[in-house]
Amino acid sequence: MKIVVKLFHEIIIKSRPVRKLITKQLHYNLENLLKAQVPETKVYRRWDHIEIKLPNDLPADTQFNIKEKIACIPGIDFFLVVDEVEFESFDDLVAQGVQRFSDQIIDKTFCVRAKRKGKHSFTSIELERELGHHLLTVGQSNGVRLRSPDIELRLEVDGTKAFFIKEKIAGLGGYPIGQQESVVSLISGGYDSGVASFQMIKRGVKTHFCFFNLGGSAHEIGVKQVAYFLWNKYAASHKVKFISVPFEPVVEEILKSMEPAVMGVALKRMMFRAAESLASELAIETLITGEAIGQVSSQTITNLKLIDSATNAMVLRPLVAMDKQDIIAQAKRIGTEEFAANMPEYCGVISQRPSTKVKAAAIEKAEESFDFSVLDNAINNRVVQSIEKVLDGVDTDTQVACVEIPALSDVVIDIRHPEEQEQNPLHLTNNQIIKIPFYSLSKRFPDLDQSNNYLLFCDKGVMSKVQAHHLNLGGFNNVKVLQLP
To answer: Where is the THUMP domain (predicted)?
Structure first.
């Protein structure tokens, strides 16, 4: 199996030294990720593309996972799954093209598209015409159609090699991770912070996550799921940190010591101070937020300026001019929409009467009565974890029954995200499997046949325990957790 990776178009126009540096980084990222799945992977860096060679006998699900992984690596415009052949002459090349393409055009209209690099006795157009003529002669097609054919037959010629293209798959675009300095993204699990984090990852920025916990362990587990999903899907070539800061005492102190009008801005200022302190420990000087102008009361230009004045760090807001519907649409495309739709928004409940234009004097006066030792304690009590281990050993504060071997009558509910279900299907020989993503379970479970016993399954077991616990509390005692050995 061979794959040809084409560089993102912005990379191609860079100067020779910069282009070489960026391509080298993309080569490293591809090799790092793919060898973890298939150790026999070989990655070769060329001037205008990168070639990946994989064993030809890979199982279909592994091939699918490899293509899914490449499609989510920043820095790639598109990639081609190809058959590579050597040819000795123009006639030999045409003959090999007929051999590979003739079965694909049966009862279809077609056209041939060729690209060529190097010195040859023929042009790309001559190759298209000759190969198309032979296919029309020997094949069982419905004829040639240059505009909107049923199928386009594509090949690329490089020297004495030809690549017959089997698939063309769109890449993520952007720049390879590792090309820019690192940042810390303030993530809440909602639409905005997830999309903002993704935007930075796509631009080649190594993105760490900082979470201010306002809602207990269930909220923290949910946000960890989002952060892990983003990292695992788009940024797993580099290790990053997940920082959790217990911020309930800070909120309590704000509620006790400040007027409602300034509470929202004050909370954001406290978060920025804490994030700056934690980022400095990682030698990072830039913070990322999902704020957009005018979206909520704390996000007016006046209030954003006041929030920024609490820190010396650079603050980047990738979504600053985006509409909410565009943000939600982006969340849907990248796979975080359902996480966000079921994540409560805690920051918005701190005040029912916020001001859209907080005065600097008002916030300074309010902070004079704030006990900053509470903020210091929150920073000191933060927990820093490597993102790849962020769900390992999570204490869910739940006591639910776990089963390793299901009974024949047990019905298993796969509560993983639909993309995880598709990439790594759950196979059980003797049990019925129902697919209900965790974010839909509470609504759909009461409609199931309650005479059955149900086992919840997810990869780590964390969300299964949380969901089973909630269902048990709701009076459903026929729910346990499946933990496969």
So the answer is: 64-168
Tokens matching residue 96 = 């090999």
Cα–Cα distances in angstroms (integers) from residue 461 to residues 392, 415, 441, 453, in the given order: 9, 10, 15, 18
Amino acid of residue 469: H
Q: Which residues are catalytic?
A: 458
DSSP string over 357-391: S--HHHHHHHHHTS-HHHHHHHHHT-EEEEGGGTT
pLDDT at residue 398, as a whole number: 56
Contact 4, 13 (CB under 8 A): no
Element (H, E) at 221: helix 216-234
Phi, psi for 35 (deg, rounded to 5): -65, -25
Pairwise CA distance, residues 438 & 137, whole Å: 55
Helices (H), 156-215: 191-202
Q: Give the three-class secondary structure for 426.
A: coil
- The DSSP call for residue 258 is S
Alpha-carbon distance 412 to 330, whole Å? 32
* Diameter over CA atoms, the chain: 87
Cα→Cα distances 176→76, 80, 316, 327, 437, Å:
8, 18, 19, 23, 31
186 labelled binding-site residue: yes
Find, among 100, 109, 184, the residue nearest to 141 by Cα: 109
**290 annotated among ligand-binding-site residues:** yes
8 A C-beta contact, residue 293 and residue 301: yes
Cβ neighbours of residue 150 closer than 8 Å, sequence gap 6 or more: 108, 109, 110, 142
With H, G, I as helix, E, B as strand and everything else as coil, classify residue 114: strand
The average pLDDT across 266-281 equals 97
Model confidence over 346-376: pLDDT tens digits?
554 455 577 889 999 999 999 999 999 999 9
pLDDT in tens, 199-235: 999 999 999 999 998 866 777 888 998 999 999 999 9
433 strand-pairing partners: 412
CA distance linking residue 395 with residue 213, whole number of Å? 15
Model pTM above 0.90 = no
332 vs 4: CA distance, rounded Å: 28
127 is in an annotated binding site: no
Q: Which amino acid is at 128?
A: E
The CA radius of gyration of the chain, in Å to the nearest whole number, is: 27
Query: Quick check: 237 and 204 in contact, CB under 8 A?
Result: no
187 is in an annotated binding site: yes
